[in-house]
Amino acid sequence: MTVQPRRPAEPGADELLFVPLGGTGEIGMNLNLYGHAGKWLMVDCGVAFGEHDLPGIEVVMPDPDFILERRDDLVGILLTHAHEDHLGALPYIWPELECPVYATPFTAALLRRKLRDDGVALPAELIEVPLSGRLKIGPFEIELVTLTHSIPEPNAVLLHTACGTVFHTGDWKLDDDPLIGETYDAARLQKLAGEDILAMICDSTNALVPGSAGSEGSVREALDRTLGGLSGRIAVACFASNVARLETIITLAVAHGRKVALVGRSMHRIVAAAREAGYLKDLPAVIDAREIGHLPRDRVLLLCTGSQGEPRAALWRIANGDHPDVVLEEGDTVLFSSRVIPGNEKAIFALYNALSRRGVKVLSDREAEGIHVSGHPCRDELTQMYQWVRPRIAIPVHGESRHMAAQAELARACQVPEVVLAENGAVVRLAPGRAAIVDHVHAGRMVVDGTTLRTTDSPVLRQRRKMVREGSAVIGVVVDSHGDLLSEPRIAAAGLFDCVEEPEVEEAVVAAAEEAVHRASRHDRRDDHALGEAVRLAVRRVLQRELGRRPVVEVQLIRLEE
């Protein structure tokens, strides 16, 4: 009998592999795979914001090609919590996988609403798992461990296998007063030291920040002080997913004599999902944003989406006078009870400036201390977790390279025997033997481009980036069957030059196109491709000479047969 060779990165019965396809070396786009006994388990499936070098793109996600090729061996997708960077790619990726999805009640409720809003069929097997639940998924014995974060029901995952146990933290911090939901399961965490944990795969976001992240309870006190000193309309921008923060703001607004309106679709979606999962039962009633015009300005508080400067979110539209129901003006205040996600600085500062130009006062946690705390662990919390878990292997994830390097240094200081700094696409063998990167697999990126999914290196996006950098021009040429011009070539070059103010450029382009046709051989004049290419190169040379740019040039050649 011939033994067939295993495919690259195929996990054997005596192996435990970890393969991050997103979220390692970056913040966002978390997609992690665990391989054991020929099967794979996906932990999280998230997105990130579009970047400045991807014009027209708002959503980026990991390229799932590696696991798509192994979909028959994928036993399920386990979600640690409901943030977009951990589940936001499911509407795009799950239809290609069609495997069971496992989530706790709040995460499942939010996922169902998200999929319905996006017009995606619900997973036939969306399986709700209780907090601290245990279940078996293929060769993996799963146990959830309740932690705290900036959203209800964040879970660490204990993956028990024949090769050892992995503690995958997800996003977390240690908050003794989270206000909404359970606090972290300290008793279970403290028992881990005696259970010989093979590896800890851990959040690195705040690994450079000393101390602790802080508590939602302290934010409530700071917001109470701040709101009490403000007049006019107040708008508060925060992450809609932070249910405790929403509950705090609504409760405090009512205490200060203000009516609250939710502004932005995701605010309504989160509140509905939270109520479905049993949270916010005693939340004071909110009003429709269309009603605020009938109330005195100092009796209104708006809870708005758009804290990251997203161009289609509610706060951006308000700042630019484009919202149908809400107007902010001089004497009003916007509180940013949120942090700046790395990469969003330019958009957020543009939002600050747009509000300031309207005379609106802008307050972030720099001007109003304590109105936001992070949802990720700082160095003291990371140290505490290492002291509880005592893993043999530490693998930092969920952070940029500098964050991961800082956590690796801290893990070594905490006497962790083995530390592996991986990157997206690395195949890390956790067992048997010493942990090591043994292979690399494809780990690219996909983008949502309108209704189409593309890779970031697709010809369409490459050309679009070039058009943004260098501009584009379309030249129309009409010839007869012999290739002789029937009319003067015409050029359209919006955003490249102005035909009225720079007529000399248009004249030079037209002359170059005419000359290219006249100089072409008789054979090339009868060949549409050859003639079009000659015109394209001639026009591009002129534009480079006249404007110092190398634009994308398209030739529309029309041949009129006799």
What does this structure look like?
- 30% of the residues lie in helices and 25% in strands.
- It has 562 residues and is α/β, with parallel strands linked by helices.
- It has 3 domains: 16-211 and 374-455, Metallo-beta-lactamase, Chain A (4-Layer Sandwich); 216-363, Metallo-hydrolase/oxidoreductase (Rossmann fold, 3-Layer(aba) Sandwich), CATH 3.40.50.10710; 471-560, Ubiquitin-like (UB roll) (Roll).
- An 8-stranded mixed beta sheet has the order 9-8-7-4-3-1-23-24. Strands 10-11-12-13-14-20-22 form a 7-stranded mixed beta sheet. It has a 5-stranded parallel beta sheet with strand order 16-17-15-18-19, with helices on both faces.
- Strand 13, helix 5 (186-191) and strand 14 (199-203) form a beta-alpha-beta unit.
- Mean pLDDT is 92; it is low at 1-6.
* Total domain modules: 3
**Major sheet summary line:** 8 strands, mixed
Gyration radius, to the nearest Å?
A: 28 Å
CATH topology descriptor of the largest domain: Metallo-beta-lactamase, Chain A
CATH C-level class of the largest domain: Alpha Beta
Number of strand elements: 29
Q: State which percent range the strand residues make up.
A: 15-25%
**Strand order across the biggest sheet?**
9-8-7-4-3-1-23-24
H/I helix tally: 16
Distance between the termini: 71 Å
Helix content: 25-40%
CATH-defined architecture of the largest domain: 4-Layer Sandwich
Low-confidence stretches: 1-6
Shape: globular
Structural class: alpha/beta
Write out the CATH superfamily name of the largest domain: Ribonuclease Z/Hydroxyacylglutathione hydrolase-like
Give the mean pLDDT: 92
